[in-house]
Write a structure and sequence with these properties.
46 strands; 11% helix; nine-stranded mixed sheet; disordered N terminus; mainly beta; single chain; 27-stranded mixed sheet
Amino acid sequence: MLKRTMSLMLVLILTMTSVVGVASASTTTKETVINLSDSAVIVDGQKASTSSSAAVYTGASIVYYEDGHDSSYGEGTDSDTHSAEEAAKHTVVTITKPGVYRVTGKLSKGQLAIDLGEDAASDPTAVVTLILDGADITSTVAPAVIFYNVYEPYSNTEDTKGIVDLSHAGAQVILADGSVNTVNGSYVARIYKEGTTKKLHKYDGAFYSKMSMNISGEAKGTGELHITAANEGLDSELHLALNGGKVYIQSQDDGINTNEDGISVTSINGGYLYVNAGLGAEGDGIDSNGYLTINGGTIVTMANDRSPDGGIDADKDITINGGTVLALGTRNDATSSTSKQPFMEFSFATTQAKGSIISLKDSAGNELLSHTAEKNFQSVTFSSAELKLNTEYHLYINGVQQQYTGNSFGMMGGGGFGGNRPSGDNGQATPPTGERPTTGEKPEGTPPAIPDGMQGKPEGGFNPDGQNTAVSGEGSTAFKITDSIHSFSGISEATDNSGKTKVTFTVNDGAGIQSVASGKSVVLKGVTASANVPESDIQLTVTDVPSENYSETYLLSELKDDYSKIMPKEDGQYRLTIAVVSSNETYTGVSQWQFSIGMLPFTDVKSDDASYNAIKTLYEKGIMIGTSSTQFSPNSPVTRATAITTLGRLLNIEQTESNAFNDVVKNSWYGGYVGWAVENGLVIGDGKGNFMPNANLTAEQIKAVISRYVELNGLNIAVDELFPNTLTGTMTRADLASILSKLL
């Protein structure tokens, strides 16, 4: 269970008024009371009408996926079908007029449906408020509660950027204080309009709304809603807001789903939410096809532990602005850095077992989180108002301190982190000649202006060739979040405290993982451990970075040398983690690599940047390969050594060593290029025998170099047209890429 933070938040939830929706249940509003019963449904003391013109009536046919049809009927399988006899046993209670309805009692086979007519969506008065006050509804063939037609305040094409106000939505649900409400529901697979393949019906959730839905608690927030779902739990076809009360969901598939692609918003503003999803073959805890915005409340959510699903999942931004959030899964989607409340994302190197106790403490030993996992997990997202930026935290699993080897900006000492340019047709990348630094060589200038090929081994053990030559396996136990760092990967037992033998891994005979161009296959053909660890105790995980769409996990013994099972094919940025499973009593260790398919691996270059295409072109040709595995440093100044080396690579020149300058190291990453430039009269030094390789280069100087080259070789190139009039003074790496790409 969650301690301090969770318990404090729960007290607040139980004592505060709901954020949104309470006004719609004002005591001055006339309520229609619906008492459910298998023998008779009573409305305001009278037996419910059977006339469809009444505000509440019984007798409508339930919509379900009927058995005995061929594929022209819909997309359901045999497991989705139900017989007419089973459906006929259900009593449908239909609300047809706007108003406030207090629902109590039990239907062991039935459905509560709200349908104000096809014109309701555009009618602001078409609002139904359901006050659930001890309602217990079970449907075995369809959703137990469904809103068909009510007022919809938003268009299904309107991108709200994750912010919605559903206080005036037509579907309002309030959980009465002190009540326990139970919804056990099924679903309806896609049924076609007759003679077409267009959708007539498809309702995936046990509690379902075709329109935006707003769920709140009464004043004390003590009302409960328990949803048990044969498929998905709580669904809306557009937006959904949870504002108060206590909601518990157990579902075979997604716990919560809002399903308008790129548009829907799941907004959690208060209350308590517990989701145990994916009890079947798959399922996310909270899945929004658009945005997930958390402004308050306490959320504990779990996904399927056998599929690549997450406790939180959204196709657009996940934003945490308040509340307490604990999400567990195989792969949680990444939370947006625009979130107003600090958060931490933990990606474990191997699967953690059900029953594991997760604990997070600050440096003083104060415990912010203590939770016993109800399922296996590999990914955890935690956010709380108690988390502070620039503060050190320590993570424990079952009392054993954990360390991480990677974070938002790449790897620490946990393994090779190959960020090479894409390889050619043979799947292998050959680094440009001379780009490896010589022993004892220092990076030019001051950080972050490290030139191509002089990265040496910055934080993360990266070296420019992607070779696994500096795998230390070292990590950090200090989990410190900042404005830009909140994600920690490769988490495993702290090697200093485990008492186990440390193991490191290499892949592809030490060559690491090479990036490839679109349509090419990433090569992974072998894994080697530094100790004799059983293959059944070595786990491989590949996820996209940031975590959004891809996650595959296998034991080495399961792959049986067929590594294609785990490797992605779509364009993207990916991370491979290889680790000893935590249950091994003798060994521990983690190694990680990062690679890309068809894209730049740099986090500081965006696709809409003016220089993006130029940088991508030069990167893919091995002309400019970045200042680290994840950084291109587009705004850093260009040094003379970098400029000459890059120009030489572009022209595919033959390198020549020279004794012309005292400060050019022979056989260095740039020495052969400087020798070529001297031999061809392209550069001169300071007149005192120095080339000044670390000095920044101006636009005028590189223009002079290119002009000399064009003149000496008789090329028909208008050099002035390569340089914008606005480009003067010290050049940046992005400037250089933009200019040189025009020479290709």
